[in-house]
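Supplementary Note 3. Input sequence used for the single-chain structure prediction.
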Amino acid sequence: MANKTDTFRGKSAIELAAKIGLDKKDFEFCSKYSAKLNSETVQRLKNGGRAKLIVVAPTMPVHGTNNQHYIICERFVQAFSLLRKKTLLCVPSFSLEDMLVHETYNNLYPLSDVLSGCGEVSNIAYLHNFIANYINNQLIFDGDASSLPHHLMWSRVASSRDEALKRVITGFGNTKPGRALKEEGFMHMQNSELLALVAASMNEEELKSRIAKIIVGISKDNTAVHLKNLKLEEIVFEMLKGAMNPGLMQNRNGDPVMVYTSPSGNFLPEGNPLAISAAMSLADFVIAKFDSGVPLSIEKFFNITCAENEMKPDMVVVTAFVNELNTYGGATLENAKKKNLAALEKGIQVLIGDIENIKKFGVPVLVSICENRDITKEEIKIIDKYCSDLGVKPVFSSTKKYSAKAGIDFVKSVLEIIRIEKSYFAPLYENALPLKSKINIIAKEIYNKSRVTYSNKAVKELELFERMGYGKLRVSVSRSAYWRETGAENEINIKSASLYAGAGLVMVAAEDGEFMPYYNEKYNLERIKNALQQ
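The predicted structure, written as discrete structure tokens, is reproduced below.
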């Protein structure tokens, strides 16, 4: 049972709303502690923001380290409050699976509200599968209809990682005419185009337009079959429109948190411009926290979300744990927890690469280094040297020992950077470039690869999308959040491509990018149980 001192005593949703200048007429309440902004409020707020936008993202995650990056962000927000700076944290919604397996999931309270339905991710997964089932049923009963796809481009999704579903045979036990065995596959719900287009839409009219553009397959005469050809666009719109509006929850300190619908940065652009723009009308500083690592989260957010919506981030805070840097340098999980200067010297190159990547977008950077113990003087000296060579200030802290003064000093460093360093944000590529050229730029600038290879499947798919007139869409590169380079080879392989016309992008899967990720290695059962008991 959770300790009595840890029992949740949060603010009511009305108190949270008042803290950011709203009242109960602006919300639809989910419970005493959480609510969703209504459509009128979101549309009123979306164009009036002048807040400073600070993006917080971790270095590449490492399995088994249990580094709780959200703690750094919580302290960040708390220190802003102590300095009486009006601040609002924005985070993506998450599912039960995220809480059970993700080591850095956002610590929102009360957790029971998150599970009971303020987030729409599971509902979107259900709707995605309804479309897949509808198409399959129509193919059985009216397979010759011109409105139906001959080549299907709409897979089913699963709400949890389950490698066994990557390739399945359906149709066992069917004895009626038209039913046959068929090889199909599931992808993770974070890959759903519905999730991506909800996150990208700024109003209901745009959402309607994006839904109508969804392509579910290719007809027998080689024309695109859109969702509107199936007469499903109105139903899908009615079921999706509520997911556009962000929710209001709180962290364990009682600070308000805006929670929005968004995919994971591993596959599709992380971030929701409607929610972030609304937040920028309610605070002086908006902190957008992502979880998928700098190369994945930041690249997609900057090149797609910010570029498409003329959003300009003012700075990036990269969070890193010393044991992660040691692990990058070859230390085992056990040895990484101790001082390991040789591993740190090698592993810090990953952090340096993250800093260099962010600077390519013209955005100022600050690095927050944390550890579950005191960081030694020797470690500080190494990290400080490499960061200083790039003109970046590292700030050090411990999850075990923390003082309000340390948090305030951290925020003062952020404020100083914002004051003296201007953001000259610009995306890395222009839309007019061919799809392969955009992929090559991402490979070179973000993953430091001089050569990109393509499977025959990927070549055919990209050529098809260009012929169909979708060559000017932005590109989302799918990789595992835990990607590792397998050797010294300086190339990256693109194995497949998918057209997400409604979301306005082409998603390409690179070597380790999985539409259905592998099984989970461990579950945070004890931690979730304690959180639910608070």
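The chain is about 40% helix and 20% strand. The domain at 435-510 is CATH 3.10.410.10 (Formyltetrahydrofolate synthetase; domain 3).
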